[in-house]
Amino acid sequence: PVDTLAVRGLPAVLNCSAASNALVRVEWKKDGTFLNLVADDRKRQLADGSLLISTVVHSKHNKPDEGVYQCVATIDNLGTISSRTARLTVAGLPRFLSQPEGVSVRMGGTEMLSCEVTEELVPFTRWERDGRPVELDGRVIQLPSGALVISNASQSDAGLYRCTIDGLGPAKSTEEAELQVSAGTDRHGVGVLEVAGVPENAERKCHFNTSSSPHISFFLFFSSRERFAVIGGGSLQIVNLTEEDAGIYACQTDSDNMTSEIQAELTVHVPPRFLTRPSNTYAQESMDIIFECDVTGSPPLTVKWMKDGDTVIPSDYFRIVKQHNLQVLGLVKSDEGFYQCLAENEAGNVQASAQLIILDLDVALPSAVPSLTDATTDHVASSPAQRNGPTPSAPRDVVASLVSTRFIKLTWRLPAEPHGENISYSVFYSLEGTNRERVENTSGPGEMQVTIQNLAPDTKYTFRVVASNANGPGESSTPLTVATQLEVQVPGPAPNLQVVSVSTASVTLSWERPSTGNGEIQTYRLFYSEKGQDSEQDMEVTGLSYTMTGLKKFTEYSFRVVAYNKHGPGVSTEDVVVRTLSDVPSAPPQNLTLEVLNSTSIMVHWQPPPPGTLNGELTGYKLRYRKGLRRADAIEISTTQLFQLIDGLEKGKVYTVRVSASTVNGTGPTTEWIAAETFENDLDESQVPGVPSSLHVRPLVNRIVVSWTPPENQDILVRGYKIGYGIGSPHAHTVTLDYKQRFYSIDDLDPSSHYVITLKAFNNMGEGIPIYNSATTRPQSAPDPTPMLPPVGVQATVLSQDTVKVSWADNSLAKNQKITDSRYYTIRWKTNIPANTKYKMANTTSLFHTVTALKPNTLYEFSVMVTKSRRSSTWSMTAHGTTFESVPSSAPKDVTVISKEGSPRIININWQPPTEANGKITGYIIYYSTDVNAEVHDWVVEPVVGNRLTHQIQGLTLDTTYYFKIQARNSKGMGPMSDAVQFRTPKGKASTLFRLTYKPGITGSQENHILVIVVIVSYMIFVKYNKNKIFNIQSSTGSHKYKSSSKDLKPPDLWIHHERLELKPMDKSPDPNPVMTETPIPRTAPDPAAEPSHQRRGLEGEESVSTLAGRRGVRPKVMMPFDSQPSQPVISAHPIHSLDHLHHHHHHYHLPPRGYLHHQIGLRAPATPSTLSDRPPSAESVRSQPPAPEPPVAPSQPSTTAELQKTEALIKEEEPPSINPPTAHVRPTHPLKSFAVPAITVSAHNPPTYETALPSTPLLAQPGLMFVCVSVPGVKMASIGTLNRVRAPMAVTVPSAPDQSETSKMLEVVSTYETDELSEEMAHLEGLMKDLNAITTG
To answer: In whole angstroms, what is the distance from residue 824 CA to residue 562 CA?
Structure first.
């Protein structure tokens, strides 16, 4: 078919002819959609395939025939080809854009009379002079624009001229314009240059109004001067126009020493023309082929490929190479068919076809190129002779000897049974997960290696090798799966990809150059897809921004960008989703119907606009109705429903209604006015309806279609109809229908059976008189083809939290499960939560499908059906699979905080599980803070284990605003946090009791207040029990020697529990002056008896429990109630030197690491093991003490006999023999936790030597008590649970290990404490107590 200009009301023909030895079926497409010629009585297809439009219809609002047509020819079981496209244009109404004007021309001069019409009307124009047609010649010509040019004018040219449009119905003419020819000369003139062209020739009109004949010449720049002629006194005509004729033309005139020049540019449009056409091809499966298509034209043209009438979409296996050629990789049987190359530009379009025939592997490829439809049944006219003889076995030991990013080298060994010489090999390979194989043959016989090129990086491929001899291909090797290496030289992702909607159909994208470019960026490729569509389109972009147009209105699109360098594509950006801007609806609502209910009301129904035309969020509908058919005041009603009752109307009046849809952007187009007339009077229901006026039946095999007309008396109300039917009697079955219905299909009838049918109308008064008819159903025809067997062995393999792979087998295929026909499979899946979930479906041509976009931790059911031609199977048995869990994607909801009644410092926080838990909730994390803008790590954390939905938080501050957040967790991790919920604790009265407890977060001066309280309370207890006692500190010199061995040494009996600590009595020591340290020997140390005593001496450091807890970063609440003890025993404490003063000592001490501090605790004191026998071990002490822990040895310390031994000091109390002193012990009913501090090692470069020991008089044996407390910032102090009972004081000390001189000074300071000084200290503490009371009450 060719482009055609049709005339309204006249017939039009579009030619199409298809020739073949087989039966050809010809169909027509209009604007890409097949025409239904059965339903269109104006269009019919002629015997040769041409399309005849008997009467062309065309109006301002209805243009059903204008458009682009295409002829499609199909041969069953072979393929389809399409013709070029042809545009049918209907000429518009005859009208003139302007009227010619009367002019005067001198004798011998040139004049032009214009006739302005639209382009399609130019062929229908002609000129008349004085009512007779103007004869055209070389002097009088009509330009392609319709204008008339008269050169070398004479008196015979004078007259009345008019332009006429003829051939489009009645002729239509312009007004007459008079041309006068006068004598005389006029030296001045005006020049005009026009350009007019047709596909074959072009004219350049150079017209000057002058009184004499000027000399006119043309100059063509950048072109030759052949085929040119000046006609009509100044028009340039070019015949056989070619692309080389394009250029700049200048019209120059010389007349009486005056020269004028005008220029114009000629652009030539060249229709597409094939330089190389695609050729028919024989091939075998797994081969690669290329269809060539070299085409030229101007302006630049677009080329697309089609296979059997469907557009070929480029993919991994269908590629466009060398600009327009189509490459098909890894042929499969379904690739067989007709391929067409279609080229198009503004000047026209062309197409060329080629056939692809895929032969079996045992059929040799013919050398001759087949014709278009030859060998379509058997593929080749003569089959080759059958080859007899064995074929090779499978090649052995197929390995990938070299793996790179884009190629893999394979090697193998000779088959065990080659059965001949000159063995050749073929390597078949495919992308993992696909069934399309490609083949690569070795370069020569006997070669057992091949390199597979052009692979994708970081991708798995499957390889197999087949050996061939003279008898054909043999067995295949076992498939080998190899993954290419990751490409590292490609560009990284383009950062800062931004997509902004700029209009209803366009978006602007911008991005930055990748930070890891790995070389020069050559280009960018932009990928985009419409939401809900599986196919992704792409385009090449050179800059860092692009504006994409032609998008759908109010539609979501996904965009991503990939940078390319010389190594190939880089890493893709993340998808960015954007929606184009909304607009008013582009189509009116559908199916507008009016139903007259009575004499004063009409019910209006309609449907929404077609999908894709709403262009935004629907805000409602506007309904306008008016009385009468002509213009009148219309009433407007706004509604969001699809129906509207209009009441209060006048009786017997005609009303017209129209409806439009609205979005936030405005109101769209309205429907046509639909009319309905209200009843003159309401219908009568005082009697039953009459008999229906007619009853028609149309029998089929298993059903009868019944139609009827209502009773003739329309004044009686009919509320419905009843149909009765049965074999021989109409009373077997009854069906009740609505009063508006006029036909009904009676289904499930028996073939070849006689049925009697009755119909009657009814209303509230009763049933009317029935009308009867009968019909015999048709006999049963041949049975329908048997359905296909459903797929079996359906399996659902869960791959991730949102992906499941479904695979199956097809029993209707061969044993190798190879698909060789056009069947396809449909997979459907759904979840039972919620119960009304609809099935989702997908089609595939392989025996598996990967279902994506599923919900995490959700049970899905899958089933499969197979379809071949018009046959389909039933659904297979279902397979189930539960997707993996993922982190919660939503936060807990409905978070509420309430205060506990009666406890203003306690709140209860409640919540609901997250909507998208994506797995089993294993717990929640509660965050709360007084600063909503604080960093997350500064919020207080409260974990909740399990799926509890409530939690209690205690110890909050009164009259304080708190903010709470909650996040859920499952086995995969934490979900998002909920929004902060604000709650302010109520106001409360200060408590009269003094309760010292620890709360996390208390720092600074508050710790000092707690410390002062501890000191004051302890001091008051001390004064009560020791009013008349003074400190008596004795010292003695000399060294004591211990006789007991090291095996009697025990670790310190100092254990701390988080809740309670008590004091217990300890056995007396027979030695009146024991030294209160013992030195346990590590198990790895040599025998102490064999070493000098000074090598076994060491210093150990001790830290208080509070200091220990501070270093460990643990802040537990420690409550320490004490039991009552006799008044005689007292506990004294050593004076303390701060650890900050360690550098003043004679020796340098190396503190152990922080993590080691929780192992040991003890006092520093030198000792000699020879004096241990002076006091036998206490049985109770030994019984209550656990084994001594073995201190770790630093790996950097040398293991020699000169190494300093680490010691551990034991704290013991001493008193006169008649007193039973208390010692610390732990109740056996509580779990215990030991805290210890390692010894402080002595620097190896300055080992200590002791000539004399420290004073051996026990400090704890003195009848007095002194508390020495050291405040360490950031350390939790022991709190006292109750104050209403008298309790024995307990000292918690942090002693250091001074040398001899330091210790002597300390003891001298302690001995100077007198009663006056204690009184002054007491007064000072009372002042501190008052300050503390003021602070707490405030």
So the answer is: 33
Distance from C-alpha of 374 to C-alpha of 873, rounded to nearest angstrom: 35
Distance CA 162, CA 125 (A): 10
Would the pTM of this model clear 0.70, i.e. be above it? Answer: no
Strands 281-284 and 348-359: parallel
CA neighbor of 328 nearest in space, from 429, 568, 320 = 320
How many Å apart are CA 48 and CA 796, to the nearest integer?
53
pLDDT per residue over 223-265, tens digit each?
A: 446 677 777 667 787 887 887 778 888 887 776 666 777 888 8
Q: Where is 1324: in which H helix or E strand?
A: helix 1315-1337
- Average confidence (pLDDT) over 1158-1173: 39
Contacts of 729 (CB under 8 A, 6+ apart): 756
Residue 398, amino acid: V
Residue for token pair 């909503």: 932
pLDDT band at 873 (very low <50, low <70, confident <90, very high): very high
d(CA 377, CA 575): 48
- DSSP conformation class of 1080: P
Residues 6+ apart with CB under 8 A from 184: 106, 107, 211
- In the chain, the percentage of residues whose pLDDT exceeds 70 is 69
Position 54, amino acid: S
CB 867 within 8 A of CB 945: no
Listed in sequence order, the residues at least 6 apart from 1334 whose beta carbon sits closer than 8 Å to its beta carbon are none
User: If 0-12 CB within 10 Å is exposed, 13-18 middle and 19+ buried, where does residue 1005 land?
Assistant: exposed
Q: Which amino acid is at 462?
A: T
Residue 339 CB-density burial (10 A; 0-12 exposed, 13-18 middle, 19+ buried): buried
- CA atoms of 674 and 603, how far apart (whole Å): 12
Measured CA to CA, the distance from residue 398 to residue 552 in angstroms comes to 52
Distance CA 994, CA 901 (A): 23
Structure tokens at 1047: 């095996």
pLDDT, residue 976, reads: 95
Cα–Cα–Cα angle for 798, 801, 804, nearest 5°?
Answer: 30
Both structure tokens of 730: 């109409």
